[in-house]
Amino acid sequence: MESLRRCMPLVFLLSCLAMFQTAGAQELPEVLKDAPPQKLMAVGLGLMDLEDDRKAEFGRVVDDFSVKTAKAIRKIMKRNEPGMPRKIGKRLKRAFKDLDKQVEPIVPKEKWEAYLIFKKGLADQLTPGR
């Protein structure tokens, strides 16, 4: 019984991430539908074809996003309060909106679709079991 109680936060996290992934799913080309997250991210980054300085800035923004988001989710899970899946889902939605705002000046408008492919891979990578 104790082990079941301990794994409940993980179950909530998995359901939140699954809801977020399906709600924010972008329409991908057929070739990329079942691609692993790392491949989606690599394809998106390749299609963006950023200059070296912009690529470095983009990498810093994504690293910062990953660290802050993981820290926020851990904080929510430590509290173990009712409504945890909803709170995690809201935090992920807000984090991805912030990421969009931060990369908007880095990624040219004509390359935005490539960024969305990268973002889909990033969201998939945050989903355990992918």
Describe the fold and architecture.
This protein has one domain. 75% of the residues lie in helices and 0% in strands.
Number of helical regions:
5
Q: Main beta sheet, described?
A: none
Q: CA-to-CA gap between the ends?
A: 28 Å
Q: Mean of the pLDDT scores?
A: 79
The total of beta strands comes to: 0
In total, the number of domains comes to 1
Low-confidence stretches: 1-25
Specify Rg, calculated over alpha carbons.
16 Å
Structure classification:
mainly alpha
Question: Roughly what fraction of the amino acids lie in strands?
Answer: under 5%
The helix/strand order is: HHHHH
Helix content: over 70%
Shape: globular
Describe this structure in a few short sentences.
The chain is built from five helices and no strands.
List the helices and strands and how they pair.
Layout: H1 2-23, H2 37-48, H3 52-79, H4 84-103, H5 112-126
Helix pairs in contact: 1-4, 2-5, 3-4
Protein traits:
130 residues; mainly alpha; 0% strand; disordered N terminus
